[in-house]
């Protein structure tokens, strides 16, 4: 399937919202019927120490800050096993910051320990930013790092650090972060070594519609080449207590998320199979609407998520049964999936 042009994507971004939603829903029905999937998962934020210092992040702390933390492998594994014992999970999303004290051996040990004690839990871990840091720290290639992580048990990679894949925007909101070409190159390497991933987009800050079109276009181009993206996830910049939040204090409305989801569903038709509703930043009600605007996956239960914990506190989703009920009450058929988006149970 051919990727759409930048011009076609920008045209979609400017189209009538209801017409967009109608078209996106038709694509969604054709591909997924009335099924909406989710995964029982947890988020392991293994450290909040980060030297990148993105202006939109309220989670990170610089090294030696009084609130800085980093879990030992034992503590991290204990947390995963405790959540699994309490709720039963299929996936752990492992993300933190660029912490100079943590090398690749930490992740190899962590992944192996999780797989040894809970082989049913898939490891969805790290981001291109963390892989770039590990490659520089180890003086290794991206492929060598990814192959080592895969051998230790990493099964897929989240799309963290994508933000907007336009360097001018990245320089404004996260000047020390890897550039867009590096992000795309690491994703391509991951796909080549058999590590599928998610693609993400954080909108609602300093970007233009043209920048959003460019971001979607670049992801579509890479997907046409590798086929390695399993899902696309758009999320709204949440000001919180971040530095950027002082300049942009109000998040975009729910209508903007619906537009992004609809455009993604139409633009990625035949390319990326799944579009996520993103309930954490949008809230459960908007996520329900997103299912009518092209989303087919509700995401995960996100136990232990700490990066957006002030947002999470407002969202009444604490257990698998909550997700099932939210999907069902929107008029869709809930289905539990595994890490690779294969359905394991219908409800």
SSE map:
Blueprint: H1 6-13, H2 17-32, E1 35-39, E2 41-44, H3 73-87, E3 91-94, H4 104-117, E4 122-125, H5 128-138, H6 142-152, E5 154-156, H7 167-173, H8 180-192, E6 197-203, H9 209-226, E7 229-236, H10 243-247, H11 254-267, E8 274-276, H12 279-282, H13 284-290, E9 297-300, H14 309-312, H15 320-329, E10 333-337, E11 343-346
Parallel strand pairs: 1-9, 1-10, 2-3, 3-4, 4-5, 6-7, 7-8
Antiparallel strand pairs: 10-11
Overall description:
- The protein is α/β, with parallel strands linked by helices and 347 residues long.
- The protein has one domain (6-341): Alpha-Beta Barrel (TIM Barrel), CATH 3.20.20.70.
- It is built from 15 helices and eleven strands.
- The strands form three sheets. The protein has a four-stranded mixed sheet, with helices on one face. It has a four-stranded parallel sheet with strand order 2-3-4-5. Strands 6-7-8 form a three-stranded parallel sheet.
- Residues 307-313 have low confidence and may be disordered.
């Amino acid at each position: 399937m051919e990727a759409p042009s930048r011009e076609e994507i920008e045209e979609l971004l400017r189209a009538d919202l209801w017409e967009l939603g109608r078209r996106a829903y038709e694509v969604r029905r054709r591909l997924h019927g009335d099924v909406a999937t989710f995964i029982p998962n947890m988020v392991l934020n293994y450290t909040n120490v980060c030297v990148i210092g993105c202006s939109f992040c309220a989670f990170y702390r610089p090294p030696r800050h009084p609130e800085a933390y980093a879990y030992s492998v034992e503590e991290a594994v204990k947390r995963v096993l405790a959540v699994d014992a309490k709720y039963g999970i299929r996936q752990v999303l492992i993300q933190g910051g660029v912490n100079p004290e943590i090398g690749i051996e930490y992740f190899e040990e962590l992944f192996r320990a999780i797989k040894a004690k809970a082989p049913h839990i898939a490891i969805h871990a790290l981001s291109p930013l963390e892989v770039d840091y590990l490659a520089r720290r180890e003086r290794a290639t991206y492929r060598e790092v990814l192959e080592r992580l895969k051998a230790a048990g990493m099964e897929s990679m989240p799309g963290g650090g994508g933000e907007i894949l336009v360097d001018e925007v990245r320089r404004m909101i996260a000047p020390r972060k890897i550039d867009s070409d590096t992000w795309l190159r690491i994703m391509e390497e991951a796909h080549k070594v058999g590590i599928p991933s998610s693609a993400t987009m954080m909108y609602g800050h300093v970007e233009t519609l043209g920048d959003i079109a460019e971001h979607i276009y670049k992801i579509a181009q890479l997907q046409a080449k590798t086929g390695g993206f399993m899902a696309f996830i758009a999320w709204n910049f949440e000001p919180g207590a971040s530095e950027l939040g002082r300049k942009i204090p109000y998040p975009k409305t729910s209508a903007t998320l619906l537009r992004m989801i609809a455009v993604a569903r139409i633009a990625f038709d035949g390319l990326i199979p799944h579009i996520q509703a993103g309930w954490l930043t949008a809230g459960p009600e908007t996520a329900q609407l997103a299912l009518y605007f092209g989303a087919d996956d509700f995401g995960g239960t996100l136990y232990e998520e700490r990066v957006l914990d002030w947002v999470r506190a407002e969202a009444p989703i604490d257990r698998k049964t909550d997700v099932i009920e939210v999907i069902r009450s929107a008029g869709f058929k809930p289905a539990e999936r595994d890490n690779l988006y294969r359905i394991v149970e219908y409800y």
